[in-house]
Here is the input.
Amino acid sequence: MIDLRSDTVTRPTPGMLKAMCETEVGDDVFGEDPAMNRFQEKMAEMFGMESALFVPSGTMGNQLCVHLLTKPGDEVIIDETGHIFNYESAAAASLSGVQLRPLKGKYGKLNPELIESAIRTRNEWDPHTRVIALENTTNKGGGAFYTEKELLQINNVAVKNGLFLHLDGARIWNAMVASDLSPKFFGSISDTISICFSKGLGAPVGSMILADQELIRQARRIRKMWGGGMRQIGLLAAAADFAVDEHYSLLKEDHRRAKEFASAVSENKSLSIDLSSVFTNIVLFDVVKGTVDGVLKQLKGEKIEMVQFGPSTIRATFHHQIDDSDLKVVIKAIKKV
Ligand SMILES: Cc1ncc(COP(=O)(O)O)c(C=O)c1O
Here is the structure.
């Protein structure tokens, strides 16, 4: 099966498994896993943040950050396509007593004017605007990334209004490749970042939050409270570390394949795609003749899987376990549907 449903479907490679087998481990709840301690320090240093904490999922990473930056009754500004708003089971309300304020940005991205227009007056009855949550790259927004200028402007709005900036960097690696911005730059504009190793980088499990020392100290306790304290996770550190070192350089090929695929989609009159909306490894396109179900079934018959992403929208996501020969098969199939 050529699985383009998500970049989370990758399997560990032999090199990754070898690294996992060879790592040292200890009990991380006691803070004694040497591989994880080293990896957390490495990531904090890479992003120029004081400290880092490994968490089981991007969802826990985002929700820990929301929890740490807010009090019940606060409000978080977010794009209406944001993962925190759409796909985290209303956790911000449930775990932190926080209200989300979804705004209509473009391709899942917010802009300074939009954010400023949503900041509330401080009084007894309005929710207290506390956090700006950005996603980079965007998922439901189609893999778009922020430019340096856009991020600096948004950071400016945050500083001017005393707001925190949280970055959902589940695909920060794709954003780094596409925007040519350094991890330290992202660290310099954010109060908290959540990064994932289990998306395009291809680790089986794991995300990490990055913040200052005090927030990470508090995060360790909340992670434990939420059932995310783990024991011999040097195994996961080894997999994620291998993914950072060995798979980051493959992401640009995923972006190239996504563009080639999108161009084949544009040649099929039953489908519609805005080629200028293909930014990284995610391709969103619409079915204009026939149904999404029909197209997905036909592709499945050719051993290709994609996923429905709206009433008439399909998402195809490229990752390092899709090579050029797979791409050829997919292009041939998409031209025929
Ligand atoms: C932008 C974004 N943030 C957060 C997550 C959550 O990650 P996880 O599935 O590890 O909880 C995802 C998952 O795909 C995502 O796309």
